[in-house]
Amino acid sequence: MKKVIIDPITRLEGHGKIEIFLNDEGGVENVYFQVPELRGFEKFCEGRPVEELPAITAKICGVCPGCHHMASGKAVDAVFGVDPPPTAKKLRELFYMAHFMHSHTAHFYALAAPDFVVGPDAPPEKRNILGVIEKVGKEIGTEVIKQRRIAQEIQALLGGHQTFVVMNIPGGVRKGLSEEERDDIAIKADGFVRFAQFTLQLFEDVVLKNKEYVDIILNGPYNLKLHSMGLVDSNNKVNFYDGKVRVVDTEGKELYKYSPPEYLDYVAEHVEPWSYLKFPFLKKIGWKGFVDGQNSGLYHATPLSRLNASDGMATPLAQKEYERMYATLGGKPVHATLAMHWARLVELLYSAERCRELATDPDITGKELRASLGPIPGEGVGIVEAQRGTLTHHYRTDEKGIVTKVNLIVGTTNNHAAISMSIKKAAEGLIKKGVEVNNGILNMIEMAFRAYDPCFSCATHCLPGEMPMIVEVREPDGELLQRFVRD
Amino acid sequence: MDGLEFKPRIVAFLCNWCSYTGADLAGTSRIEYKANVRAIRLMCSGRIEPTLVLKAFSKGADGVLLCGCHPGDCHYQEGNYRCLRRYLLLQKYIKQIGIEPERLKLEWISASEGKQFADLVNSFTETIIELGPSKTKQTITVFK
Amino acid sequence: MAGDKPKLKLAVYWAAACGGCCVSVLDVHEKLFDVVSAADLVFWPIALDTKYEDVENMPDKYIDLTLFNGAVRNSENEHMARLLRKKSKTLVAYGSCAHMGGIPGLANFSTREEILRRVFEETESVVNTDKIRPVPEYTAKEGVLEIPEFYNDVRSLSLVVDVDYYIPGCPPQTERLLEVFTAIVTGAELPPKGSVVGADNKTQCEECTRKKSENKKIKKFYRPWEIKDDGETCFLEQGVICMGPATRAGCGHRCIKGNAPCRGCYGPPSGAIDPGAKMMSAIAGIIDEKEPEEISRVIEDIADPGGYFYRFSLPVSLIRRKVQ
Ligand code: SF4
Ligand code: SF4
Ligand code: SF4
Ligand code: FES
Asked: Minimal Cα distance from B53: which residue of C?
């Protein structure tokens, strides 16, 4: 049996590695997507005062620290049995929308765009953010960097620290917003909306008007039928900060809708001996292995799944884009992995619009920042949508609020099985007997997991954003048949 | 410890004015006490930095003894209160990091209390023998 | 930045890290173009050809400057630390994790066994009746799959290899990185090996803008949610633990600006070896009680001394892991 190794594919709460085993016919026998990293937050958060967890758990990930800070803040509120005042909740959400702007912008321009704007077959040295800038002009490149910076400035203003915000305190937030600051954010939010619209237009011009690309999206080896998960508000519209988790099946029918404290009835995790990352699945269906389809126990939690699991977007411009996307792609739900890029841009527009709504909401400059706390009941669950999937924090404490148990199901983890399978499908579709593994094929395989933005393809990819790879094709005795390095 | 006798290593931080004199007195009056103690003299118990105590443990001390003047008698007024507060805080911390709190002890010894000092050393040594050797040094050098 | 000088060969590597340090490098924002014109990035797993083998093939001391972030948690981290030491002229421990063990270093309060058991067998959502755990080498039916060995102990970079400089912070402030970077590029004289750079020599308190009195006295400690912070008075004087007295300044007291007490990510100020010991000493100095029972009552409210005083520094502290 021959073996193809892609190592490391970088970030995912650590580093990632793909092993592709080929059979004697030269086809794909199996694919393993391994996560070699473990840090053990579930254990070492024990013994800490629970109010410290929003800051500690933010350090699970420097790419989406805001998501952990929010999920954790909400779990801590639940531990104290407190509901923050409207101003506090809105400030948190405002921060969170800036966080989404920041992350989705970076992902689209640094990661997704190179494949489409520059082209999947372009030489690797061009297929990066600098290549995108070359193609679309330096002004746009500078604009991308600027919008990302502005989003980060808003984060720092609301949260103290630009990356690792410290805004959440049990029952609310530590800092309010002045009128001037609010006015400033409102102007910036207008800019966000224009920027998001511009980005969607770019997607339309470059991708959707190119039949070849639409074909890759819809027909390439990138379809995976899994159930879809996402957080929705009381109208079943997409919400990132609050609501209930809704799961729809592969045909778009609602399977479950649960509130955070009920998550254990619906989600469970499976362990494999070859990866430090667990594999979540739908508990009521059970672990059926790495299979897709209506009977599978697997789901995905991504921008696309969020749209699939909802009835629409809560802001008008984003709603229009939502409708357009499904109309173009043949109705709901969509299972084309690459449609995630489009879904992400719909979300980008939603974040921008929601940011503007919140910045002009009279409550946002309110003075009531913290609610008084109840007794410490000792258990709480907080759920938000992280950019990379539904994020669950679950804490137990003693009567003094000292943590005794922590359970975490983080964004990308939800998609561990889905990513493995997408890679496998792509590999199966592309690696065939007699076909030499080349640059283009590697990039096409890579596109499968890049669509998930699995944390390693995050904001940090801003620089020459190329996913490096090495592929070795070996004979069963280990002799090297073909070695391919892409840089 | 069958056969191999455990000889505890004890570090005593002594204030120069009262406790060290007391210890000295114990020596000159030939009051017998266990010879496992390495005494370190400081001007005042208020000078016993937590760093010194933790360092002693990290270098392999099985027990650490802190001695200062009786309350009210400190030559620098409040040094011994400062020592007391550090000691109580350290107790809480070393417990958390897995060192038995009994391995750290604070007593007030005056210049005339040679006998008390000898008794203290003897009883503390007993306590440490009961606890057995400290695993601190070994644990913190184990990598991987 | 001289035009004819060869460009600086720069490497950035993450070990047991969260990615925040790499993000902080990217947060140069528009100055990114300046950095790229002054330095060639020869190794940066998130951005360039990552293959470890290519680093192995570099001549020794090929890289001018390596910013190593993340703690050393597993066998792969250790291997990369040794490799990059060999290949770099200047090796910088970048960020709290590389500098002191950082947040992942809190794991030194537990053992490998406890962590693996909790994560893979006991968490509330896990279904694992066969008690399967990830293993460094697993033979699947198609072949052998390898993952790094998870160590019992978290180490900082300098506990594994020789380190030239430390840039503290979780993550370091990007402006401070740029200062250091510019100094290196322009050939300015660098402080002696082993120094902390990109930070100040004072303590956080000396630069903090909150109002403080000369003589702090505390009769009770509070958890942050137990008080109504007035946004102005020193946290410690309000009875809330703040690591300011035992922390090096240089971050622009960004947490305090967000109305949160400092937790010490910049590490101890120059001269102090053990931040926690320094903090215990500071706290003992402000407790306004004399009777043992009273003092104990005050201390009782310091809920998690280890977790407060060694939040970022347990692996380099004097008692660097839980004794067992
Ligand atoms: S120092 Fe902080 S920002 Fe840097 S890797 Fe460690 S946790 Fe992340
Ligand atoms: S203890 Fe904290 S709040 Fe007080 S002066 Fe120092 S840094 Fe500022
Ligand atoms: S205030 Fe303290 S914890 Fe916050 S960034 Fe500065 S040194 Fe780090
Ligand atoms: S002089 Fe003896 S304790 Fe201060």
From this structure: C277
What would the 3-class secondary structure string for A308-332 be? HHCCECCCHHHHHHHHHHHHHHCCC
Domains and CATH numbers, chain B: 10-141 (3.40.50)
CA distance A320 to chain C (A): 32
Q: How far apart are CA A100 and CA A95, in angstroms?
A: 9
Q: Sign of torsion, CA C231 C235 C241 C244?
A: positive
Cα-based distances in Å from C166 to A132, C66, C203, C255, C267:
35, 11, 17, 21, 10
Q: What is the pLDDT of residues A254-310, one digit of tens each?
A: 999 999 999 999 999 999 998 888 899 999 999 999 999 999 999 999 999 999 999
DSSP string, A93-124: HHHHHHHHHHHHHHHIIIIIHIIIII-TTS-T
Residue A8, preceding peptide bond in cis (omega within 30° of 0): yes
pLDDT in tens, A93-131: 999 999 999 889 887 887 777 777 777 666 666 666 667
**Model pLDDT for residues A287-299, shown as the tens digit of each residue:** 999 999 999 999 9
Angle at C49 (CA atoms; ends C44, C50), nearest 5 degrees: 65
The answer, yes or no, to whether residue A461 has pLDDT greater than 70, is: no
Between CA A350 and CA A100 the distance in angstroms is: 10
Assess if residue A384 is contained within a domain: yes
With tokens 């809480």, the residue in question is B92
Amino acid found at A438: N
All structural domains of chain C, each given as residue ranges with its CATH number in brackets, are: 8-103+154-196 (3.40.50.700), 111-151 (no CATH), 204-316 (no CATH)
Q: Which two tokens stand for residue A54?
A: 């929003």
Is residue A317 a part of any domain in this protein?
yes
**How do residues B70-79 score in pLDDT, each as one tens digit?**
998 999 988 9
**Prediction pTM value:** 0.92
Residue A447 lies in a domain: no
- Residues from chain A that touch C210, judged by Cβ atoms under 8 A, are none
The H or E element containing residue A472 is: strand A469-474
Task: Give the ligand whose atoms come closest to the C-alpha of residue C263.
Answer: 3
Contact A228, A299 (CB under 8 A): yes
Rounded Cα distance, A105 and A83, in Å: 32
Residues forming a β-bridge with A336? A223
Structure tokens at C122: 């006991």
Q: Please name which ligand lies nearest the alpha carbon of C224.
A: 2
3-state secondary structure of C146: strand
Backbone angles phi, psi at C108, to 5 degrees: -70, -5
What's the CATH code of the domain at A325? 1.10.645.10
The whole-angstrom separation of Cα B97 and Cα B128 is 18
Which segment, A232-241, B110-119, C178-187, is predicted with the most confidence on average? A232-241
Q: CA-CA-CA-CA torsion for B56, B61, B63, B69, nearest 10 degrees?
A: -40
β-sheet bridge partners, residue C68: C13, C93
Closest chain C residue by Cα to residue A270? C127
Say if residues C138 and A271 touch (Cβ distance below 8 Å): no
**ipTM summary value:** 0.94
B60 interface with C at CB cutoff 8 Å: no
What letter does residue A232 receive in the DSSP assignment? E
Give the residues across from A268 on adjacent strands. Answer: A281
In a domain, A150, yes or no: yes
Structural domain total, chain A: 1
The rounded radius of gyration (Å) of the Cα atoms in chain B is: 15
- Count helices and strands (H / E) in chain A: 16, 16
For chain C, how many residues are written?
Answer: 324
| Non-local CB neighbours of C62 within 8 Å, separated by 6+ positions | C9, C42, C87, C88
Give the Cβ contact number of residue A211 at 10 Å: 8
Report yes or no: B85 at the C interface, CB cutoff 8 Å: yes
Domain that holds residue A405: 40-429
Tell how far the Cα of B36 is from the centroid of ligand 3, in angstroms.
44
